[in-house]
Amino acid sequence: MIAKMLVFKHDINGILDHLHAKAFGMAAARETLKANGGIVRVASKEPTIPIAPNLTKPKPRPIAEPMRIPLEIKANPVPELNKLTLSDLETQQKQRREAAKQEVLKKYEESSAQPFKLEETRSNLDAIKKEVEDARMAELKLKFKAKPKKQEKEAKILQAYESDLRDASEFYRWQSDMIKKDDEDHRRQVEMRRLEMAQAQHEAIEASLRAKAENREVAIQMKLVARENDEKRRQEELELNQQYQQIATDIKQTREVAPREAEERVRLENARKREELNAMLEAERQRKAEQDAIDQAQREDLIRQIRALDRVHREHVAVFDPTESSNYGLLEEMSLVELRERLQMKKVQEAEWEAERREHILESKKDKEEDLKSRVQNIARIRQSAATANRAARARKKQLELEKLEKEKKMRDEGNLKLAAKMTKQRAEREADARRLRDEEELIANKRMFLGAAKNMLEERHFMQQSLGAEREATIKQRATQTDARTDAATKLMAKNVRHLYRHQQALVKEHEFAAKDELNERATLETKARLRDDKDHRKATVRHEKNRRLHAHEILQNRNAYATEISKTDVLNGRRFDAARSSNQLDA
Question: Which residues form a coiled coil (predicted)?
Fold first, then answer.
């Protein structure tokens, strides 16, 4: 048994020394605690000051100005057609004809050029009528001279009676009766033609009234259609206003809800970060408490060792040589000079390690700053490229819209030219047909007048007037349609220009907002960097101060009792050797 103990004598001596140091170190710790009044000094820490996040207040979106809805109601005047009668219409028609006739005559009478003369019908009907009337009036006169032809005729009758002994009075009586009968037939035909003309005039008047009634019905239908279109337009405007109101309501709701949602998200994110920070701080506090407990235990052990060393009997030596060791036979004992040299070497190593660590921290900080700067540059480059692409897209879109407008305008102009050419051609054809028909009608009318059968002249003239009126009405409608089309096109172009101007203004406003946001982000980034730099410098200064304080305290303790320091180092080395020996024995076993 003793032989085995002698084999492990070195390890047993190390364990005994370690137990001896622990026993006397605990006594020294109790004495220190009693001297401090039972209070364990712990390094104080500054309280954490909460800083509110610098949230950017969202700018409300501008709401488009709604369309102004007119509330007044404009009533159309009462149509005057309901107050007119047939006699009034005839009177107005006569007055209008007379006024047009007087205006045309006045225009041609006052003309500085050669006066215009209407084409006169080449007919001798009036001259024949005048001759017949003059002859009849001459026969009705009481005192009239005998005609030479009649005297000659009566002389021939008497001569024939004398030569032939035959009376021709019966023939002449028959001839006179036939002439009277022919005259009566002629008068009857004239009266019949007069009645036919009156009937034709009456039919023309009725046709005119029917045309006016039809025109009135067409006007009523057009008014109904216009009223329906007006009602439809009013309904469309009402729907459009409702859509605008709905859009304004959505924008208002978004403006009221979106900031609250953003604040809620920021609040939740801050709460999550706060919880993570609290958990990290709690873990750090626990680790710090454990580390403080370990440090406190080490300090108590050191105090106990110091007190134990104070209780150990010392041999007082008259002469102290710092270059010689104590010669107690202890492991790795050394002189005071060698101890100081080793301490100086240790300090130099720690200073080199601290400088290397500081350089490593500065390099990591520089790398982080370069990384952050490269990220900011990448973000700026991406934003700039996106802005360039957006500007190019807007310019391309604007160019396409301009090309589309030019194309539509060109197509519209070509269509208008084609329509004008077509209408000109149709008008020329109609005029040629009308001219040809007029020539034919004039020829037929002349023939009929020469034949004494011009009873349909009034109807044809009335039909011609109706055709001219229909043509004038079509021309007026066409001009009104063209005017409406031009007005509609001008209105659409103005609305498009207004929309384009509004979009351009909105784009400028958004660009200014983005620039302001970028400036705020850059300013916040710089402030955050400065704050982080200050925090790092503050923490570094605190750590450096704490380290210097601990080094100073440790140096004071070592200088106060060099022997206890040496014993502690020896115990540490013995423990390491014991662990190494035990590990080697386990490997050998």
Answer: 273-300, 383-440
